[in-house]
Specification:
Keywords: Cell membrane, Membrane, Transmembrane, Transmembrane helix, Transport. There is one protein chain. The chain has 431 residues and is an all-alpha fold. It folds into two domains: 180 residues, MFS general substrate transporter like domains (Growth Hormone, Chain: A), CATH 1.20.1250.20; 205 residues, Growth Hormone, Chain: A (Up-down Bundle), CATH 1.20.1250. The protein is built from 17 helices and no strands. The protein is globular, with a radius of gyration of 21 Å. The two termini are 36 Å apart.
């Protein structure tokens, strides 16, 4: 592709998004650049502290449990206190708890602080997604969520490489660097991001109070949450089932690292052009295709006998991941009332948090008792079930492209009460 065409494509991808979005995007990137704990926690506990693999697994589970607990609580805070206060509390708590984790030595203390770190770090997600929905126009949301997803993966790819070198020198330095960069995110939020929570009108006409019960009774949305859980179970196998299966097959950790590195490389290289491809296309069909790519991408792993073939299967399900992440997040926003976005995003985040808890148990049980081939076959079945579910949901909800007339009408009721965010290049407009 000529350089001029690349520049034009990049300019069109980033154009028209409000200034506040880019500060939020920068905060996400900085936060992921400083990621250390989640990447090297197991190595830190087993190699540096000398604990057993079982204990390291327990700590990882407690870290995930913290995320499950905070998903709903953070969603409620996002609606009641506001997006900005929730982000400030989450980022500040993460910075402090990560720093403390680097200094504690007693196994009970480490486990307890790891739980707090998991809860604090996950608490920012509902607020980030709700704020992004507040400040970005409906027709630009898929593009915005995709760019944010790209920043997450770019930051993670860089931090994973840097963390390896830092760990060679000092694990404590890694904890302190992550704490410092998370604190920088909190400062960016405090200085640059105004509150974006929609203000209720004086009459309150048409604005029903949104509680957790409202979310649970929303059948359409809970169907999305359930399908999200199924897809998340499949995608989690890239970090839990795949390394176990490759190890059992005689491959080294370096072989797994080489295969899984394709995931981050592809996302960083292709997420923006993929976004341009899907931005104006039918969201329901994209979700169906992404589920099938995820399920059968992992399903093909049953036939892998070399690092090259493993890498090829990673390419297949990574494409599904790139299609699914921004499209599904955009659908969640469309189904969320403006004054309940925090709770809705919290419930959506919960689906991924619970999947992160169940996936390791599922993969370990299936591999131990039935063999890895059954796990990959099960992934294909789950991916197919999710695709069928999305197909049914598409017919029920009418999940079409965000710029179609039907979608504008669906979104209209959730957007009419959104107040413009001061200082944006393009204020949040009603549909």
């Amino acid at each position: 592709m000529p350089l001029a065409a690349v520049r034009r494509a990049t300019r069109e991808t980033v154009a028209g998004l409000p200034r506040e979005f880019w500060w939020l995007w920068t905060s996400t990137l900085v936060n992921r650049l400083g990621a250390f704990v989640a990447t090297f926690m197991a190595l830190y506990l087993t190699l540096d502290r000398g604990y057993s693999a079982s204990y390291a697994g327990l700590v990882a589970s407690l870290h995930g449990l913290g995320g499950v607990v905070s998903s709903i609580g953070a969603g409620v805070m996002t609606d009641r206190l506001g997006r900005r206060p929730t982000l400030l509390v989450a980022q500040a708590s993460t910075a402090v708890s990560v720093a403390v984790l680097g200094f504690v030595h007693h196994p009970v203390a480490i486990a307890a602080v790891a739980f707090v770190v998991g809860a604090a770090s996950n608490a920012s997600r509902p607020a980030v997604q709700a704020m992004m929905a507040d400040i970005v126009r409906p027709e630009d949301r898929v593009r915005a969520f995709s760019l944010n997803y790209w920043a997450i993966n770019l930051g993670f790819a860089v931090s994973s490489m840097a963390a390896g070198f830092i760990a060679e020198v000092s694990y404590l330095a890694g904890f302190l660097i992550e704490a410092g960069m998370t604190a920088v995110c909190a400062v960016v939020i405090f200085v640059k991001l105004p509150e974006s929570r929609p203000e209720k009108s004086d009459t309150g006409k048409g604005e029903e109070e949104v509680g957790l019960g409202t979310v649970l009774r929303d059948g359409r949305f809970m169907a999305v949450v359930g399908l999200s859980f199924l897809v998340a179970l499949v995608f989690q196998q890239g970090s839990v089932g795949l390394p176990i299966a490759m190890g059992d097959a005689g491959f080294s950790p370096a072989d797994y690292g080489l295969a899984i590195a394709i995931n981050g490389i592809l996302i960083v290289a292709l997420q923006i052009p993929v976004t341009r491809f899907i931005e104006r296309r039918d969201a329901g069909r994209i979700l169906i295709v992404s589920s099938l790519l995820a399920g059968y991408g992992f399903g093909l792993t049953a036939f892998a006998g070399s690092v090259g073939v493993f890498a090829l299967t990673v390419c297949v399900w990574t494409l599904g991941e790139m299609l699914n992440a921004p499209t599904q997040t955009g659908l969640v926003v469309r189904l969320s009332p403006a004054h309940g976005r925090g709770r809705y995003q919290g419930m959506y985040t919960l689906s991924w948090s619970v999947a992160a808890l169940i996936a390791p148990l599922m993969s370990g049980f299936v591999i131990d008792h039935l063999g890895a081939e059954w796990l990959w076959g099960l992934c294909a079945v789950v991916g197919t079930a999710a695709a069928i579910g999305y197909g049914a949901l598409t017919r029920y909800v009418g999940a079409e492209s965000p710029v179609t007339k039907e979608t504008v009408e669906i979104t209209k009721s959730a957007e009419t009460d959104v107040s413009p965010v001061p200082g944006t290049e393009a204020d949040v407009r009603t549909a």
